């Protein structure tokens, strides 16, 4: 591990920590299952069941941007600085779209509590994907851009910027940037699963039906088995979306930086605003 000549040693060391800690903290509000009665106690499979859980995820995840910007500035390298500037502009561009696509989800489910959003999707046709199909595609595209994965990896473009904002990093500090990216991939898979794909629920198979199958084990035994099934289902969906992100990375070439900006501001932003308008009209018409 080394610090380049002329770099700010403290900030150079602190930047990867700023990048990786928010990625880990987002999991504090991600539920892996519903509520289960085990030996007289109600168990929630979430570390902190916040009323503003969804807002917490985006607020904390956006803090990682500071780590990337500080890394580029503190490295005393033109390549690193250009990469960090690209990172900042790209994340600002796609944060707007992500926030607006989430508005549609909030209008449908009426809650920012991730456990409530997941519980509301027990019926297959109540999955967020069927209620917000355009919102899902925009959210997923914006998520990949936020995480700087191919085809949105302009901040790290090897052919243009050597390695972008972490050009002057090595050793564990270099590894922490990659760890943050891969943790964010898991977070994206978890949030997409909860918002759009039924969370821990199995299509056409309600929790009550599952409990009735195992009622011979007693209340706690049946709840324990159903809890394990729900956790397995949830992580199966998450693993699928991690695989899908990797498939996109292996399939598509890198977009030019100007194409990334145009997609964010001229395509996804107007579509996300239109999605909110249409969602509002449909909700008013139905009610």
UniProtKB/TrEMBL annotation:
Question: What's its membrane topology?
Answer: Multi-pass membrane protein
- Protease is among the record's keywords: no
Q: Where does the protein principally reside?
A: membrane
Query: Mind telling me which InterPro entries this protein's record contains?
Result: NADH_UbQ_OxRdtase_su1/FPO (IPR001694)
Transmembrane among the record's keywords?
yes
Which Gene Ontology MF annotations are present?
NADH dehydrogenase activity
Q: Which GO terms describe its cellular component?
A: membrane
Q: Which residues cross the membrane?
A: 12-32, 52-71, 92-112, 124-145, 182-202, 222-244, 265-286
Q: Which GO terms describe its biological process?
A: aerobic respiration
Which keywords annotate this record? Membrane, Transmembrane, Transmembrane helix
Where is this chain's protein located in or outside the cell? Membrane
By what name is this protein known? NADH:quinone oxidoreductase/Mrp antiporter membrane subunit domain-containing protein
State the species of origin: marine metagenome
